[in-house]
Amino acid sequence: MGKLVRDRIPDIIRAEGREPRIRILTNDEYVAALLVKVVEEAGELRDAATTEERLAEAADVYEVLLAVAELCGASIEDVVRLADAKRQQRGGFGGRVWLE
Questions:
Q1: How many other CB atoms are found less than 10 A from the CB of residue 41?
Q2: For residue range 38-87, what is the model confidence (pLDDT) as tens digits?
Q3: Residues 69 and 76 sit within 8 Å (Cβ to Cβ)
């Protein structure tokens, strides 16, 4: 079973003297793989123990979000605008509010 990887990973594997087995996903496969990837990266963010690890995992989540936005024909700026609108309507998470 494979997984979606960053575009340069096959080149990195080749530089290590190995030959990766790859294929290019169809659009439907790509959508499904991105949705799996965002959950994978979010789990890694959850499990990160240090600030440095959390920032590195947040960067991975961000990269997947960029790909999702592009797939939707949008930019990260479009996502930011939507997030800003939601924050205006519903607030953010800075207040640390826990609903019991």
A1: 19
A2: 999 999 999 999 999 999 999 999 999 999 999 999 999 999 999 999 99
A3: yes
Q: Where are the alpha helices (DSSP H) in 1-100?
A: 9-15, 27-47, 51-71, 76-90
Please say whether the beta carbons of 58 and 18 come within 8 A.
no
User: How far is Cα 9 from Cα 60, in angstroms, rounded to an integer?
Assistant: 14
CB 55 within 8 A of CB 45: no
Global confidence as pTM: 0.88
With CA atoms as reference, report the closest residue to 43 among 28, 30, 61. Answer: 61
Give how far the C-alpha of residue 48 lies from the chain's centroid of Cα atoms, to the nearest Å: 15
Going from the C-alpha of 19 to that of each of 9, 43, 60, 93, the distances in angstroms are 11, 29, 24, 45
Q: The tokens 């997984």 sit on which residue?
A: 3
